[in-house]
Design brief:
The protein is mainly alpha-helical. The protein contains 15 helices and no strands. The chain folds into two domains: about 10-105, no CATH class; about 120-285, Farnesyl Diphosphate Synthase (Orthogonal Bundle), CATH 1.10.600. The chain is globular and about 55 Å long.
């Protein structure tokens, strides 16, 4: 766990949580600003938890140390649900869990997803394994989020399932070069084989002349998930889905820009101008 959130601070640990979210300068921060204060603070706490376990999975520590760190968080989640949290972050998390009736299994799913990265570098997973990974690291976060937004309808869980996958697939396409530098390749094995790519070594795949074929197929899959999420949102309370709608709009705009850029110059960063983010937040957050 990070030192800033482990030590017992003199002030409310929520200040450290807010600072961490603001420093990240993410689309998440823009979308969560739409929420009333209590719900916004709860989402910031979920974000801080996700950053903690993600930092463990992405650290330079050997796999046994990563597993130990994630195991410590599994025990801490059990402590949260037993009303015995032991760190400043988990004490705030306990308040959020009880205030919004958050399911324990989704926290464990997130940790399980991080462990998939921590145990060994993921390289060309099957479509089934990629879907499981996306469910754990993204859709599980969505299932926690929709409850904080204010709904636990089955349609809201469908939004979480589809939108979480859409966002994660967009992340995969955006971060191809960065992931390859870490020895990771999340492009699905079936798509690689259909494109005639036998390699699974990340850098070799990124140099292959048929890379664009694989990326276009994954982008199509992300588009399907975005469409499923929009459809499921129609069966949810509109106000509760505003943050999800903004996140979906921002990431869909990123996906469109990635496809327009193409897959030959994948190290060229694709970012949305602040003005476009603001316009999307206003359009989808106020309608």
């Amino acid at each position: 766990m990070s030192a800033a959130l482990q030590r017992e601070p003199a002030a409310d640990p929520r200040a450290a949580i807010r600072a961490r979210v603001a420093a990240a300068s993410t689309s998440f921060y823009w979308a969560m600003r739409l929420l009333p204060e209590a719900r916004r603070e709860a989402m910031f706490t979920i974000y801080a938890f996700c950053r903690e376990v993600d930092d463990i999975a992405d650290s330079n520590e050997p796999p046994p140390a990563k597993r130990a760190g994630l195991g410590a968080w599994r025990r801490e989640i059990d402590a949260v649900y037993a009303d015995k949290p032991r760190t400043p972050l988990s004490r705030v998390l306990a308040e959020v869990v009880h205030a919004f009736a958050l399911p324990r299994e989704d926290f464990f799913a997130i940790i399980d997803g991080m462990e998939m990265d921590a145990v060994a570098d993921i390289r060309a997973p099957t479509l089934a394994d990629l879907d499981l990974y996306c469910d754990r690291v993204a859709s599980a976060v969505g299932r926690l989020s929709v409850r904080i937004f204010g709904t636990d309808l089955p349609a809201a869980d469908r939004v979480a399932a589809a939108l979480g996958r859409a966002l994660q697939l967009t992340n995969i396409l955006r971060d191809l070069a960065e992931d390859a530098a870490r020895g990771r390749l999340y492009l699905p094995r079936e798509y690689l084989r259909e494109a005639g790519i036998a390699e699974t070594e990340p850098q070799a795949v990124l140099r292959h002349p048929h890379l664009a074929q694989v990326c276009d197929r994954l982008a199509d899959l992300a588009e399907e998930r975005f469409a499923e999420a929009r459809s499921a949102m129609r069966d949810c309370p509109r106000r509760a889905m505003r943050p999800a709608a903004v996140m979906g709009a921002v990431y869909h705009a990123i996906l469109i820009r990635l496809c327009r850029r193409g897959w030959r110059d994948i190290e060229r960063e694709v970012r949305l101008p602040a003005g476009l983010k603001l316009w999307l937040a206003l359009r989808h957050g106020l309608l």
